[in-house]
Amino acid sequence: MSIVTILNQNKLTGSNYVDWKRNLDIVLTAEEHKYVLNELCPNFPALDAPSEEKQRFDCWKKSNEMAKCYILASISNVLQHQMQDVELASNIMFSLKEMFGEQVRSTKQDTMRLLLNTKMA
């Protein structure tokens, strides 16, 4: 089974944001593209820049495109349409977190409430 199958079988519908993000993190980490969600794009290299600088820029841009593809492929068609023109994968993730991230806080609060209200046997 391909690692990408994880995303195909777990598309973001809204209510599954926490599980979807965990699966996306697994895929982006395995494919070595997750860093673009946390690192700023390097500056566009000057014509006379060292080849390492040009390579770092090209590598980041390619990883950003791959991360965008994984994200867009794993969300609903409606969300794809809303996000398709967003240039940075990190901005897509920020928008999705804004839309669905409340669930994370609510789930954590519910879990803590259950733990605190559970009596030890």
Features:
elongated; mainly alpha
| Strand elements, count | 0
Question: Which runs of at least 5 residues are low in confidence (pLDDT < 50)?
Answer: none
Number of domains: 1
Overall 3D form? elongated
SS-derived structural category: mainly alpha
Instruction: Kindly estimate the percentage of residues that lie in beta strands according to DSSP.
Output: under 5%
- Percent of residues in helices comes to 55-70%
Largest sheet: none
Number of helices: 6
Rg from alpha-carbon coordinates: 18 Å
Termini separation (Å)?
Answer: 43 Å
Mean pLDDT: 84
In short:
It is built from 6 helices and no strands. It has 121 residues and is mainly α.
Can you offer a commentary on this structure?
By secondary structure, the chain is mostly helical. It has one domain (4-117). Helices cover 64% and strands 0% of the residues. It is elongated and about 65 Å long. It starts with a helix and ends with a helix.
Secondary structure elements and pairings:
Blueprint: H1 4-8, H2 17-30, H3 51-73, H4 77-83, H5 89-100, H6 102-117
